[in-house]
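Hi L., both proteins are below.
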Amino acid sequence: METKALIYKTQDYQESSRLLYTYTPFGKYTLVAKGAKRYKSAYRSYDYLTLIELDLNIEKPIQTLQKSSISNYYESIKANYQHISYTSTILKSLDLITDDLPHERLFKLITWLLTFEDLELACITLYIKLTYALGYELTFHKAFEGFDLYKGITTPISKTLNKEETTYLKELYFLKDEIHLNNDVKGVLKQFIKNYYIYHMDYDIKF
């Protein structure tokens, strides 16, 4: 099946090959790129943070890579250390993604966020949105004055977040187009979602 795959980890394999750990609209797959370490290999540039197009057998979690090409090498991200750092945190979220989750939707979400100019915002947005897929969704009522981290719900009084901060949280939860947030707001929401994952999932996001 023709599809796209995002390489999120690589590993040397045997004398001249490489294992490519990828995320696709069908879930996670390990691809064996034979001869990838050879200088003239067509797979030599298939490395970390590369979007490829390939012919995938969705029934085989481990398979030999064939009929493929690079769709996006993400040069602008790889040229900036801070961008790489935020992208690494985005791709680290794949540790939380299990076989039963809606992969097509999550794949579209992750690849869309990688197009953001503000990758810090993309990183925060991903972990906010991912709460829904992981079963720890955030609940927003029409009227609120704050948000309770421990209950995962808006409240009629200012709690973990105040009304303004909760409004921004809600905006990112339902985000459809990139927006601009100042650094202070991003800092508050970053700490909030970090604490939310620690409390509800015992998982420490490494921002």
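That was the first. Here is the second:
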Amino acid sequence: MEDKQQKIIDRILNSAKEQFFRFGFSKVTSDEIAGSLGISKKTLYKYFPEKDKIIHDIVFTIMGFVKKNIESIVNNPGIDSTDKLKQIVMMLGKTFSNIGKPFMNDLQKKRPELWHEISEFRKKVITENFTKLINEGMQKGIYRADIDKHVFVNAWLNTVQNIITPDFLSQSSYSAIQVFDMIVKIMFEGMMTEKAKESFK
């Protein structure tokens, strides 16, 4: 019985996510979510009495996915530091591209408390994992030893927080993947040794 209920919950979240990412959650009604699944509003409300609960669960599912994938890459001893950076950038770029600007814009403007949760999440995950990545890179001679890693991590964090936003992305002609790639080229390549730059290209 629990498996059946979980399948229904997953179907609701997946359908809502697809519509929210495309149109923004403010333009999608509970009727539309239920209709897309061929279920009644009564069934929808049984699992999600409020649309806010759907929005909340989607956001925290995304954050869990990002955290799990970043940690998996950073802690993988079979990948060198430059490849770890490439994989993280690709994963983040694809994730943010899939989310869609309408959904991000709604979060920032209509659910500021959730946007704050995302900002705090970024801060924690970036600080912990990129510090590990830079420590590893410095030990292996990939990153220059004359650069303070704490200053760099904070600069990287503030860049991501201020650039990967709905306002910036809506005005940019670049995709999230391209934006992440440019940030890395500007910041990380300047921190790399000449030898590491060659392998990163």
